[in-house]
Design goal:
The protein is an alpha+beta fold. It has one domain. The protein contains 5 helices and 10 strands. Strands 3, 4, 5, 6, 7, 8, 9 and 10 form an 8-stranded antiparallel beta sheet that branches. The protein has a two-stranded antiparallel ribbon with strand order 1-2. It is globular and about 50 Å long. The protein starts with about 25 loop residues before the first strand and ends with a helix.
Amino acid sequence: MRLSTTLFLVAALLAIAPARAAPPEFATIRVNGTDITIPSPPGLVPLINKQSHYYRFGARMQEANRNSLLAYFLPAKEAAIADIDQLPSPTQWGIVYGVEAMMNRAVSVEQLRGEILPSVEREISATVKDPALRKRIGEGTDANMEQLGRELKLDAGKLRMGEISPLGAFAKGDNYATYGAATRIRVEYGGKTTEAPVIAVIAFVVVKERLFCFAVYRAYGEEKDIVAARRDATIWAETITRANARP
């Protein structure tokens, strides 16, 4: 099971998106034959157009980590841009994804607590100490950005992830746990290089005996951004749990 390190800072806006109908308040994902309702996280809405180049770019990034992208969330204005198949430039985003090894089996809350989370915590520790893994992730990201550039006939530039700094376990509920990490993203585009720190919060969630993950990302400027990312992840985990509570 691999901690997702998908971080998307891509090109400037290409066009002003037209107004669209009110965005949906939730997405529906399917894990091992079971439909799961995913309410939107704070401040974000789901992407509708899963055939857009931006969504497919995200899906390829997840596939490279042996995951499956199940839903993608952006601020409403950025989501509208992505849905008309142009490139957004969000400073906040969220994804829901399935871990390949867990997509075709039932998982109890007891298994989450007793087996999966201890394994996750060991892997997080190993991941942050593995420079070879960061190199592979960077190379995979560049390849996917080059493909995106070819598809859109753009200079896709390069995207690099710096050293990952774990921030520890953020919150643990009956059926979920969230973990924080910080990294720096280096974007080379149009002859210019920009670096930006990013906060990521990864969650492992079990509802209806199905395991999936979500991640919320936020550009980091000051301490309040860590507090906001931690808060948003906890709110999201709790709202997903309530939305899928058995009657």
